Amino acid sequence: MSPKITTELLKQLRQVMKSPKYVQEPVQAYILPSGDAHQSEYIAPCDCRRAFISGFDGSAGTAIVTEQHAAMWTDGRYFLQAAHQMDNNWTLMKMGLKDTPTQEDWLVSVLPEGSKVGVDPFIFPADQWKRMSKALRSAGHDLVPVKENLIDTIWTECPPRPCKPLIVLDLSYTGVSWRDKIVALRSKMAERKVLWFVVTALDEVAWLFNLRGSDVEYNPVFFAYAVIGMNTIRLFIDGDRMMDPAVREHLQLDSTLEPEFKIQVMPYGSILSELQAVGAGLSPKEKVWLSDKASYALTEAIPKAYRYLTPYTPICIAKAVKNASETEGMRRAHIKDAVALCELFNWLEKEVPKGTVTEIIAADKAEEFRSQQKDFVELSFATISSTGPNGAIIHYKPVPETNRTLSVNEIYLLDSGAQYKDGTTDVTRTMHFGTPSAYEKECFTYVLKGHIAVSAAIFPNGTKGHLLDSFARSALWDCGLDYLHGTGHGVGSFLNVHEGPCGISYKTFADEPLEAGMIVSDEPGYYEDGSFGIRIENVVLVIPAETKYNFKNRGSLTFEPLTLVPIQTKMIDVNLLTQKECNWVNDYHQKCREVIGAELERQGRHEALRWLIQETEPLIRVQ
Amino acid sequence: MSPKITTELLKQLRQVMKSPKYVQEPVQAYILPSGDAHQSEYIAPCDCRRAFISGFDGSAGTAIVTEQHAAMWTDGRYFLQAAHQMDNNWTLMKMGLKDTPTQEDWLVSVLPEGSKVGVDPFIFPADQWKRMSKALRSAGHDLVPVKENLIDTIWTECPPRPCKPLIVLDLSYTGVSWRDKIVALRSKMAERKVLWFVVTALDEVAWLFNLRGSDVEYNPVFFAYAVIGMNTIRLFIDGDRMMDPAVREHLQLDSTLEPEFKIQVMPYGSILSELQAVGAGLSPKEKVWLSDKASYALTEAIPKAYRYLTPYTPICIAKAVKNASETEGMRRAHIKDAVALCELFNWLEKEVPKGTVTEIIAADKAEEFRSQQKDFVELSFATISSTGPNGAIIHYKPVPETNRTLSVNEIYLLDSGAQYKDGTTDVTRTMHFGTPSAYEKECFTYVLKGHIAVSAAIFPNGTKGHLLDSFARSALWDCGLDYLHGTGHGVGSFLNVHEGPCGISYKTFADEPLEAGMIVSDEPGYYEDGSFGIRIENVVLVIPAETKYNFKNRGSLTFEPLTLVPIQTKMIDVNLLTQKECNWVNDYHQKCREVIGAELERQGRHEALRWLIQETEPLIRVQ
């Protein structure tokens, strides 16, 4: 990976930052967040402005360019990647380390007195605007909206915004019709006494209407907004995709409907003016509900007194608790996914010793096996196929320049997943195709102990996921090891592989309590820069637990792994496991054998079945 | 405990809420927080206004009185106590339970349109003002400051504000002179570019000037404010205590000093006008640093643009990290405290079977033994001496109406501590003087496992205490048990027994990272309403840990127990402990024997020494 040369681009950006053509007054700094107008984590190529200007294309990062400086804030997953992808014009700001300044503090320290800091108000979330604006103002600077995105003015070859056909999801997948979802949403709106709800997140629009798209790679979403009133439904979407008869029928666009279920289709670009019209027509006490992460531009369209902002929308929370149809779909998807991985690992065991399998070949092979499964749509994120030192780059994606050959001497880490019409998967396994060292096994075993500690945890109803994060670290901490990322994230149901409002992380305190039916990942790791990476990840379903005393009828929860792929026993130092942990591994492998074994049998994949049987031999612990 | 009859008082309060003598416009609700003008947790009798109006005298709780309703918000420690102390005029709002409304939501649900909600601006913290005011405004109501405290207008027998003599602490106790503390504070002020710092918390004033008082029971503090400029020191304090020659010499009030260390003594009541004068004299960019928990009245004295507010002040943070003199003092205090408790428990073992020892007698006896120790000043909080069902009232204090006799059939819980001139103690032990049931032992052992999990935890430098809270609960959770309070709080050095900015709680996310030298409590528990309470509490010192891999030189921390009092082995079901936990108990008891044994020997307390030896016999675990 050689860094992108950005000298000329930065020069151009600094010119437009002063150009009266684009800014009312010159801005001394310009902030480039990661997201798009929907605050998406994964974005379309036309929205990859931060990557365009800096070269750094990780999923999280904020760039700030001033007249003298260019700085990039990103988190522990991306320290190595960002350092590799950016040239000397850029300073890397490692978030989470003690001495790293916040963006606000840094701006205040470098800006000349009375500066203007520009930002695209369509991309900047309202909650961040508030924080940033306050910090700048108290230091004598101003945060100002710059209507035209300044990167777009210098990005001559910016690709067009995608506008791909939609997929209709029927009731057997979603469990609830879009009409019933609207009814439930309106009842939440009535509870909070709001008259309007603005749907800004792409996955929330998709979930609400039981539609999927492919405008953004890996995320089955489409560019759209929706504004739901007590008697109206407005869907803002471009292109001829509303001409598709299946979509028209699904949305009943041509049927005679009760007016409150009649969907008005409007151009994507008209959201701001329509929202401004809604805002202008409000009477006192009439409120409009928005996510506090909605863009500053849309939030400002509603006069302050009429806004009702919450960190999580009712759609976000409803979407996180999977119903029976969704849960069953997720189970099916994970069984198919495990079949593909058994095929892959069986194939790797044979091929790796020949020295012909690169990271890219392995990733492609994983996709090939997945694509053979029923209802496969696409991958759910860029496959992290990494061997040896590349494994320490937490969100690594192999490219020709970095592509290593798998060998019997290095640890191989594969973090991958897929979108099936019935569910989304995300699984990490760390394998050795030769003989791992004692140290590698030791580290792997601590990570496994952390994985089990979370997966087997029992906790009272109402517990937030962040309270479980330290369980995943305890065994590592005891030996002076740690990892610089959270332990788990919410997973969508044939939707985004990362979704709120729940998760397991030391960083998130605003998460909603875990509830039966929520689905999260459990993925502790350990990374040794320049040497190897280890991560063990299952997607797990929150289920009721049975305990001796049941929390005085408050009830309790635990996790059930949906991912059923063997954890390589060769990497485990059995003597470091307790008997309970050893039993967990054996029970888990027994379940893999039964469930995935039956499916491999059914699909006639006998060689992969033999591999599965061999990989799920029970561990025996010497007392 | 019979409830306080409040019908007449509430009637009077509702009258003054409408009286033009006290309010510009009638207020439809009046909020009564717990604290005093310094946001103290423990308050002087003249400040116990919430207890006066409601009867509920726990340390935490907020009352709100409207024309129709009277409601009290308190946390899990006080659910039972509040229910017992309040009459039917009051509704108990159980904080932390899912269905309990917030104060804001409740107000919005009960108030008539366009209401005014009154509050004493001297008592209401600025951060709460902001939150409450915003929530009320968005629902069409107003939060208004009512200058005269409305309770004071109806509280005819309100006691006067205490004004007791001061204690001078010399360098052997404090380790750092007040001048050096001022220098360090000014350097922090220079770092943040502020010109003034306002000290509002009583323990911060006491710590800064190396003075102690006794204006508030259990907390060695005195009513005062301080305003520190870059070249001036103003101390706002009443009474003739500044006439004390020892105090005058300590503060060098009569010496020829560099002007920047000359202390100007001013009347306590003049803080507001002085601060307003400071505020009026500021030039642009000149800032005044206040805690965001300072009162709304003082915060408003400084125009908004000149305020610099932080959740924790630099004094709060410096005070939390104990220096070598303070740590040694805390060690000495805990050794003396353990001697007193060995005497007490030895005495109880003999006396309880006679049936003559009540909770109050036991608490008095504990105080008597403590008072025999060198440098004893007073207790550090009201002794929780509780047997049987009273143990389930988490912050129980025995009074004649509830006073139970200790017996060989019930669990006894003693949570107590003292102020010594060299340190503050806080220890809980749970004992059975007969034969505990298998269930009682089971619960005790889970609590012990949680206590050990925190005490023996190893974690990287920079970890916040709240990340350790779940370790204390894991063993309880596995069986469906939990406790409704945090696991630990910061402990002062001959100062408040509860202090910030660190702690171990699922509730606090704003805590500062744990650092070597900080001192916190480790006190998980289990409570069975109507039956018994169990809690095991040590005060522990944060110390560097040695680990195999040392977090890539980030360094690691663990805890060292300062409390050295035997944990009753009779209550332990050894078979529920792991070998590691069993070793922890045996090592701990070995240290108790060595350190406390030597002191008991030195003090010639041979009977208590024999008790200690017997109570610290090693546990043997059957494999």
UniProtKB/TrEMBL annotation, chains A, B:
User: What biological-process terms (Gene Ontology) are attached?
Assistant: proteolysis
Residue ranges constituting the Peptidase M24 domain according to the UniProt record: 328-542
EC number assigned by the record: 3.4.11.9
Protein name, entry field:
Xaa-Pro aminopeptidase 1
Answer yes or no on keyword Manganese.
yes
- Write the lineage as a comma-separated list: Eukaryota, Metazoa, Chordata, Craniata, Vertebrata
**Gene name of this polypeptide:** Xpnpep1
What cofactor requirement does the entry state?
A: Mn(2+)
Sequence ranges assigned to domain Creatinase N-terminal in this UniProt record = 49-150
> What function does this protein fulfil?
Metalloaminopeptidase that catalyzes the removal of a penultimate prolyl residue from the N-termini of peptides, such as Arg-Pro-Pro. Contributes to the degradation of bradykinin.
Could you list this entry's UniProt keywords, alphabetically sorted.
Answer: Acetylation, Aminopeptidase, Cytoplasm, Hydrolase, Manganese, Metal-binding, Metalloprotease, Protease
Q: Which GO terms describe its cellular component?
A: cytoplasm
Work out whether the entry's keyword set contains Manganese. Answer: yes
Q: Which family does it belong to?
A: Belongs to the peptidase M24B family.
Description of how the protein assembles with itself and partners: Homodimer.
- Enzymatic reactions: Release of any N-terminal amino acid, including proline, that is linked to proline, even from a dipeptide or tripeptide
Q: What class of enzyme is it?
A: hydrolase
> Which molecular function term from Gene Ontology is one that the record holds?
metal ion binding
Q: Where in the cell is it found?
A: Cytoplasm
Please give the PANTHER family that the UniProt record associates with this protein. Answer: XAA-PRO AMINOPEPTIDASE 1
